[in-house]
Amino acid sequence: MATKALRVPERIALRADVVSTLVDDGSVLLDLQTKYFYSVNRSGGAILLLLEGGASHAEVLDCCARWGMPANDCDAVDSFLSALASDDLVEEAGSGACDDTLTLEGPWVSPTIEKQREPLQRIMASAFDPSLPLAE
User: Fold this and answer.
1) Which of 12, 50, 72, 84 could form a Cys-Cys staple with 55, CB 3.0–4.6 A?
2) Residues 6+ apart with CB under 8 A from 79
3) ∠109-115-118 over CA atoms, to 5°?
4) Taking CA 61 as the corner, what is the angle to CA 56 and CA 64, rounded to the nearest 5 degrees?
5) What residues does each domain of the chain span?
6) pLDDT for residue 100 is more than 90
7) Buried b (16+ CB within 10 A) or exposed e, 67-105
8) How many other C-beta atoms lie within 10 A of the C-beta of residue 48?
9) Residues 53, 104: contact at Cβ < 8 Å?
10) pLDDT tens digits, residue range 76-93?
């Protein structure tokens, strides 16, 4: 099971200011720093759960294989992790044990992530922002 080199740390975790929420068909990520939302499918959501506590690349691949990932789908997992890293959604994780008891609901599909086109600047604005009009 050969994999290409990743541009991610050895042990990775979601950044503390990236919020992940499970939905019916996967997960939604919100980067509180940039205010961008991301849609993630069910397999990607399961990987995100691993990353909440920190996991190595090998641990992620081992869990994905246990969830039914075919050997030729390692590149899709690598692309998913690279997409998280390229949008700065993950950081180096400290040492620790990966929660390998997590399960995937439903069959394995290649993990995907889709960034929304516009950040949620107006929704996430502070009530104390002087540039916003006051309610009368």
Assistant:
1) 50
2) none
3) 155
4) 125
5) 11-115
6) no
7) bebeeebbebbbbbbebbbebebbbebeeeebeeebebe
8) 25
9) no
10) 999 999 999 999 999 988
- The secondary structure of the chain in percent helix, strand, coil, rounded to multiples of 5, reads 30, 20, 50
CA distance 56 to 48: 12
CATH class as words, domain 11-115: alpha beta
Q: Residues 46-56: pLDDT tens digits?
A: 999 999 889 99
Residues in the chain: 136
pLDDT at 99 over 80: no
Q: Which two tokens stand for residue 47?
A: 């990987």
The tokens for 23 are 């939905």
Residue with tokens 């995100």: 48
Kindly tell me if the per-residue pLDDT of 124 is higher than 70.
Answer: no
Confidence of residue 134 (pLDDT cuts 50, 70, 90): low
CA distance 136 to 125: 18
Token representation of residue 9? 């740390």
Task: Please state, in angstroms and rounded to a whole number, the distance separating the CA atoms of residues 38 and 76.
Answer: 17
